[in-house]
Amino acid sequence: MATDLFNSKTGSIPPVRQDLQIIPVEEDSRELLLFFDSMKMVQPGFALNRSVEPILSLIDGQKTLHELLSFFGSNVREDDILSFIRLLDEQLILNSPYFRNESERIEQKFESLNTRPPTLSNTSYPADPDEMTAFVDDLLNKASNGTEPNEIHPAPSKALYAPHIDLRVGAQQYAEAFSMLKSTKPKRVVILATSHYSGYHPSIYNGFPYIGSEKSYTIPGRTFQADQESIRKLAEEGPEIGFTTQDRAHRIEHSIETHLLFAGHIWQHDFEIVPILVGGIDELFYKADGDVGSKVSAFSDALRSMDTDDTFYLISGDLSHVGKKFGDSKPAASMRNNVESFDREFLRSATENNSEFMISHISANYDPFRVCGFPPLYTFMQSFPDLKGKSINYHWWDEKERESAVSFGSIAY
Q1: Quick one: 376 and 353 in the same domain?
Q2: Which of 18, 19, 83, 197 sits most deeply, having the most CB atoms within 10 A of its CB?
Q3: In the chain, what is the straight-line distance between the N-terminal and C-terminal CA atoms, in Å?
Q4: CA-closest candidate to residue 9, choices 58, 81, 60, 61
């Protein structure tokens, strides 16, 4: 049943959504408030004049229209305030019944699709297929500099752990890692990738850290068909291995798309994909043999049992997230030495495939630096405990204006 926009003069006005970022910007000498929605419900680029900031600060879920009006005196009409509130509701700014109805409709519409459309085109990379090809080609050429993988950095024969950081930040590291895949030609590519959004849907994903999708994935000019047989086999074991194909977490997730952008450029032959997002497995820090631990183990066994000689694994994850943007009291720059030391040990455990040390290392202070690549990488290591890796690169991106930083790197297995 459709839910109407807010239209009450006596009921409490729904609050502004707490998950929105409201960013002051200046455009053509106008001071604006830009509404950034990580869930991509609000239309990209939606902004209001900064003069509405006092009104927004009062919309807390408690006040009625009459109470709101008392802050502005006789110069503001009741109908004008109501029209403004309805505008916010229509644009999905408020945590209202209308927003919840519309957001569920958007999620269900995505789930009904057979194809997962790109979410980064025209922002992180060009939407035009020819321009996109030239864009990726240029990155790879700059990274390889005419050289091929050598004995120091041999080409990965089975798997590649690589970042999913913004392309504008990690272009060099992406290119260095993916340019090493030119000598491989897999028929099936399993992608284990960080899930950034499954936590928004606890009622769906509680007990299901592994989120597959039966959809084909698209990027401009290319479609990757899902390996339905592999996904079906995993789905048959479903709850026992913590796997689900209810895939709304894939709707705006970038961690698989960034890898397909490069893999699809390098591998021109047809190959099928098994796209799997990996949610939080933090329970391992507290209880290794609990529910999550048993599901990680069971899923890893299932993944290993399906392996073939012509299967390649892409593992998508970054490393530490530190500084004030991520909740630390100190700026990232002051933490750099400690974080880089932590990252080196984490990467060492990954290349040596020492999952016991990795768990001990990252759980010592309960993942103090927020390593988002831990869940997919640890799952891969559990699936293939005999594989060893070689470190390809490591980078620290300092977002100085926010006193924050993200580190990331790549490993060839």
Answers
A1: yes
A2: 197
A3: 51
A4: 81
**Do 206 and 327 sit in the same domain of this protein?**
yes
Distance CA 21, CA 23 (A): 6
Same domain, 326 and 266: yes
Taking residues 57-77, what's their average pLDDT?
Answer: 87
Domain region containing 89: 20-106
pLDDT tens per residue across span 160-208: 999 999 998 999 999 999 999 998 999 999 999 999 999 999 999 999 9
User: In the numeric block, which tokens belong to residue 256?
Assistant: 């698989």
Q: What is the per-residue pLDDT across 107-135, written as a single tens digit (0 to 9) for each?
A: 999 999 999 999 999 989 999 999 999 99
Of 50, 84, 106, which marks where a domain is finished? 106
Q: How far apart are CA 139 and CA 369, in angstroms?
A: 29
Would you say the pTM of this structure is higher than 0.90? yes
* Domain presence at residue 3: no
One-letter amino acid at 138 equals D
Contact 257, 119 (CB under 8 A): yes
User: How many C-alpha atoms does 49 have within 13 Å on its Cβ side?
Assistant: 5
Q: How confident is the model at residue 145 (pLDDT cuts 50, 70, 90)?
A: low
Identify whether residues 76 and 224 lie together within a single domain.
no
pLDDT of residue 82: 94
